[in-house]
């Protein structure tokens, strides 16, 4: 059986990545979810083993030392990392897996597994990004300025990604990503075995 796709989505804070991914999961419920490990505290109704595996910094560092974390990043003072074993299990059983990672996280995963499909989600404009951040009402003006500066440096990294999708509307962005996944499944490398079998087959 062919391995499943590993698809990693990144984008600047406020671009609407979470909403687009939630819509994509509704459209493609069969796609696997990689549950990350984090050292940040659970928020609201978040549960260990559902949104994240919540661990202390020391436990996280132990997992890194054991080689159990395939990529990790520090984001707003906390660790976030992808556990290796479940990812290999899902992908090895032919299931496609979708990951929501920071920009360095997607690039690091691609370094480790070059077959990873990396997708960068862009805002339609910086003005729109700022107004989405302001609309969330979760950050003060100084934090918004910091996120905007960070967004610009993240966008500078978008050429390193395989695909760039603009989040004009959630529906269209989710559909674009679903189309990318479908196209990736039709790449020649994924049909190599079938092509070789067909060429070796006796038709009489
Ligand atoms: P939050 O704290 O809002 O749940 O997530 C913060 C950021 O961490 C999000 O941008 C998300 O993409 C990123 N993130 C979540 N899990 C991982 C992970 O396993 N690795 C990396 N590199 N980033 C992650």
| Average pLDDT figure | 95
Question: Would you count the extended β strands for me?
Answer: 9
Largest β sheet strand count, sense and barrel closure = 5 strands, parallel
The amount of helix comes to 40-55%
CATH superfamily: P-loop containing nucleotide triphosphate hydrolases
The backbone outline, from C-alpha atoms, is globular
Hey, roughly how much beta strand do the residues contain? 15-25%
Number of structural units classed as domains: 1
Distinct small molecules: guanosine-5'-monophosphate
What is the top-level CATH class?
A: Alpha Beta
Could you explain how this protein is built, in words?
By secondary structure, the protein is α/β, with parallel strands linked by helices. It has a single domain (6-198), classed as P-loop containing nucleotide triphosphate hydrolases (Rossmann fold). The chain contains eight helices and nine strands. Strands 2-7-1-8-9 form a five-stranded parallel sheet, sandwiched between helices. It has a four-stranded mixed sheet with strand order 4-3-6-5. Helix 1 crosses helix 7 (170-185). The longest helix has 16 residues, at 170-185. The model has no long low-confidence stretch (mean pLDDT 95). The structure holds guanosine-5'-monophosphate.
